[in-house]
Every structure is written in structure tokens, then in C-alpha cells.
Write a structure and sequence with these properties.
Structural class: alpha/beta
Strand content: 15-25%
CATH architecture: 3-Layer(aba) Sandwich
CATH superfamily: LigB-like
Order of helices and strands: EHEHEEEEHEHHEHEEHHHEE
Shape: globular
Radius of gyration: 18 Å
Helix content: 25-40%
Length: 282
């Protein structure tokens, strides 16, 4: 059996099952009422370390439909024209447990989208998928998983639609999570346009608001355009993949679950926007 190990250093998320369970229990208690409906088929979450967005990831995961059998995590950091990067290991060992890959759904999907995927094992460690996985293992210990990192272009729209077709063929109860952070602002990111300097946070929030409006409205091409022209999403392929899946699956308009910036946790001249969205079954 080919088993994937954790690659991110400690600090992105806790390194022990006890610590992860304590946090997941706390978040389950905090979000129990808000996530009680459990009707979401897909969502978008940020992928910074848990200090900044662990609770946001947990809230979206807990909004997914009951009895989810497979969690599909779509990550990014993959430029336009990049290859689809596939996490192809049989299992993933995480501090909170071992999860097994849904090889049947993966095979059904591959038959419908015969792209040449590149193994993500051949790429450097990336947070866009891994930072979500320990919470998946804690909250859905009996579920299976699939994961890809999608390119920031229109091919990811087709990817999401075909994923929905494969899910329909297999009859799986699936939740799809697209992973992207929003605007990366300030000297640390080399992005401080002159027009932003009077009110950086207001300026960033307005730009993030525009892309989130397009995300909730299923406007995939607008989302791709804004990510490119306004630099408002670091992993837009993951976002449009989840959006396309949700629309093809018959979900209603997306719901903006939360918005914040890293500045809310750690005041700094450099900060990142975080937004969460869910799409509920019709």
C-alpha cells in the first residue's frame, strides 16, 4: 500500500491527535447550531494555518450533508496552463487518523476526464490540500478522500462539472471543498498599489467582496478574470472547480459564510483575506 505522510512543518496545524481532537470538539460545539442543517454539497475555505482559519475550515466541513462517504479536496497554487496534480496514494496518515482514497470514484472520474494527471507526490509540499486533511480525519473518520490541485484556468470549470457526473454515476454521497485564500496584500507579498495606501484594509475588503459575489453567483469566468486582473485569489482553480461541481449538482446560489483577514488575528502591514462559501443541495 502506498501511504502519504504529512509534509507541512508543525505550526500549520497541531501535530498530535489529542490537540486536534480538542480543537475539533471546541469548533463542533461553537458551530453546532449554525451547521445543524447540514445541507451543503460543496464549499470554499481558506488554507492558512489553523491559527488563522482552522475554525473556518471546520465550520464549512460541518455544514456538509450528513453521512458523507467521500471528501474531495481541491487545492491550488497551480498557474494557468499547469497540469492537474493528483494525490494518488492509497491512504494518507494524519495525526488525527488514517484516511483511505476512494479508488472507485477516482476511476469513474478518470474515465470521463482522460487527462494526463501528474502525481502531486512529485511536487513540493503544499498547504492548499494538506492543511484541511487533519480536520477531515477528525470529523469524518469513516469517510474516504480524493484530492487534486487544479490550474487557474477554464479547464477547472470542466473538471468540476465532470466530477459531478462521476459522483452521479457512482451514487456516492460526496462533499467537495475548494481551497483558496483571497487578496495577499502588503510588502511581504510585493503588492501595495498607491491607490490602496490611505485605507489598505478597506481597499482589500472591497476587492475581495467583488470576487466573493461572483463566487456565490456561479460566475466562474468572472471569478477567473478577477483573480487574474485584481490578484484576489491565490488558488482560483480550486474555487471554480468547487463552484462548477455545485452548479452541476443542482445546488442553489452560494451562501457567504464568513469573511475576515489575517489582520484580525495578527495586526500587520501585510495581511491576507479569507472567505468561506457553501452551496446547499436544492
Amino acid at each position: 500500500m502506498n501511504i502519504r505522510k504529512c509534509g507541512l512543518p508543525e505550526g500549520w496545524y497541531p501535530s498530535t491527535a489529542v490537540e486536534i481532537r480538542a480543537l475539533s470538539n471546541r469548533w463542533e460545539s461553537e458551530f453546532r447550531i449554525r451547521a445543524a442543517a447540514q445541507k451543503a454539497l460543496a464549499g470554499i475555505v481558506p488554507h492558512a494555518g489553523w491559527t488563522f482559519c482552522g475554525d473556518k475550515i471546520a465550520e464549512v466541513l460541518m455544514s456538509l450533508v450528513k453521512d458523507v462517504e467521500t471528501l474531495v479536496i481541491l487545492g491550488g497554487h497551480n498557474p494557468p496552463g499547469g497540469s492537474f496534480l493528483e494525490y494518488a496514494e492509497d491512504a494518507w496518515d494524519l495525526p488525527s487518523g488514517r484516511l483511505y482514497r476512494d479508488s472507485e470514484l477516482a476511476a469513474a472520474f478518470q474515465r470521463l476526464l482522460p487527462e494526463d494527471f501528474i502525481s502531486a507526490a512529485d511536487m513540493s509540499t503544499d498547504n492548499t490540500v494538506e492543511v484541511i486533511m487533519p480536520l477531515v480525519a477528525a470529523l469524518f473518520s469513516d469517510a474516504q478522500w480524493l484530492a487534486w490541485r487544479l490550474p487557474a484556468d477554464k479547464r477547472s470549470i470542466r473538471f468540476g462539472k465532470i466530477l459531478a457526473e462521476a459522483v452521479g454515476q457512482t451514487g456516492r454521497r460526496v462533499g467537495v471543498i475548494g481551497s483558496t485564500d483571497l487578496t495577499h496584500y502588503g510588502p511581504n507579498y510585493g503588492f501595495s498599489p498607491p491607490e490602496s495606501l490611505d485605507s489598505p484594509e478597506v481597499w482589500v475588503k472591497e476587492r475581495d467582496r467583488r470576487i466573493l459575489k461572483a463566487v456565490t453567483g456561479f460566475d466562474c469566468e468572472r471569478v477567473l478574470e478577477l483573480a487574474q486582473s485584481e490578484r484576489t485569489a491565490c488558488s482560483v482553480g480550486a474555487a471554480v472547480g468547487a463552484m462548477a461541481f455545485a452548479e452541476k449538482s443542482g445546488c442553489g446560489k452560494g451562501l457567504l459564510n464568513s469573511y475576515s483577514t489575517s489582520r484580525d488575528i495578527y495586526p500587520s502591514s501585510s495581511f491576507v483575506g479569507y472567505g468561506t462559501v457553501i452551496w446547499e443541495s436544492g
